Amino acid sequence: MTIADLDAARAVPKALLHDHLDGGLRVATIMELAGEIGWALPRTDPQELQVWFTAGAATKDLLQYLATFEHTLAVMQTEAHIERVAYECAVDLAADGVVYAEVRFAPELHQQHGLTLDAVARAVTDGFRRGERDVAAAGGSIHVFAIICAMRTEQRSMEIAQLVDRLRSVDDKVVAFDLAGAETGWPPSLHAEALAFARQRHLNVTIHASEPPDLELIDDALVHGAHRIGHGVRLQRDISWRPDGTAELGPLARYVLDRQVHLEMAPTCHVQVGAVPSFEEHPIARMLRLGFSVGVNTDNRLMSDVMPSSELLAVSRTFGLSWADVERLVTNAIESGFAPYELRRRVVDQVRARFAVGA
Fold first, then answer.
1. Secondary structure of residue 251 in the 3-state scheme
2. pTM tops 0.90
3. Active-site residue set
4. Residue 291 located in a structural domain
């Protein structure tokens, strides 16, 4: 048994660990909020605007990909707008069959009109809670948590790490610290002080590592305490395939496999930014079958024009995944999540029960 079509994919209980709040807005919401604030968008037709965002993502250039966020961030500079976007994120993910999600954002990018870091974070988690309540009232269920990012091209990482440390004691939706943004030339080691603080305070840490210099960025993330790797697709450079189909692992790949460091993979995004030549050449299925802890993610639903279900269906079809393979992708992610263990254990048990009866 495997996934037959998109409707079947939506019925599969899914987990999402790598999704950016400012990369997942509804096109209609962008247009409405842009109208409220007088912001000029590059297109005025909803379909054309979606095409414009996706074209920017498909350049195979991370900096051009990131440039499209100018427009989503422009409409996320008030508490009301941020709360609405977070609310719609939770509702949209639940409608797509997601039962557990961790969504990330960089509060420093939402301060153009004077919001405090705390106010930004509160607006996000308030939106998640409202979305969870409305989903539950409609008979569904989703758990959505927040990962707070520092921009690696800026110098506020200690301030953001301290924000995460402060908020986690008063807001149980805040679960982790991340470094995001342009990567080449901006290794985690540039933020060694903030990452040392995160280790000392026992913060959960995930760090983006999807760009050149490939293995060096992944290694640097692990050396500085990452519990998960954002993307990690370039780890395939440390895996050699013999003619008989067996694999020889280099020291970094061996470390990641042996310690089950989770890789937050987003195949469509990886093709778009040039990390892999094509979807068919993505290593997610081969790495799953080798025993790596990998999951399927969307990264930026708007820019990549994907949803968790469409991405899971594409992976399943492209690589001929079995029902057991799909279940492993989902449970890998939940088990590697940063929410309290007891909650994740309950969600995993519920997910496995649904897989046992065909979801």
1. helix
2. yes
3. 211
4. yes
